[in-house]
Amino acid sequence: MRRLVMLHVLAVFLMVFPAGVRADPLAGHAKVETLVKSPLMWNGDLLPHYADGQPEITILRFEIPPGTSLPLHVHPYANAGVLLSGELVVHAEDGSSRHLKAGDTLIELVNIRHYGSNDGAVPAVILVFYAGIQGESVTRIIAREPPAGEPSGDGVPHGGGTGHSGS
After folding, report:
1. Are 129 and 56 spatial neighbours (Cβ–Cβ below 8 Å)?
2. Structural domain boundaries of the chain?
3. Which pTM does this prediction carry?
4. What angle do CA 137, 141, 147 make, to 5 degrees?
5. What's the pLDDT band for 133 if we cut at 50, 70, 90?
């Protein structure tokens, strides 16, 4: 009987506190929906450890016109976004990609060369949240692909030979 009561209490708890909101202390005061929570980037690799320095949060809204690709770039710090409208394909230098549609979330690649392209007919609007370091850029554009064996100059290892130019 005691076991039956415990199972009943557990069932009521799970109905009152769904899995997605149970962990947030504000859930009793507002509707809370976890959009994404993960230690992994979209390619499945672990996010790197945080850098030393004064943290600085930056929130940017990007509007990428149809038929446009962003230049090849890297982010030195963790960031995540929510695609508000349109469609976007993110491409990593190794050839992997992920297709996003409105409402999708993305934990970006850190210190991995990549770019985004809007192959759709309407602007892609994405809101991106960066957890950076005060005074440091959250994005570094990769100006060119160095010849094989030459250092990249950006401090980021490269795959050499994929030729993604971002346009």
Report:
1. no
2. 1-34, 36-167
3. 0.72
4. 135
5. very high
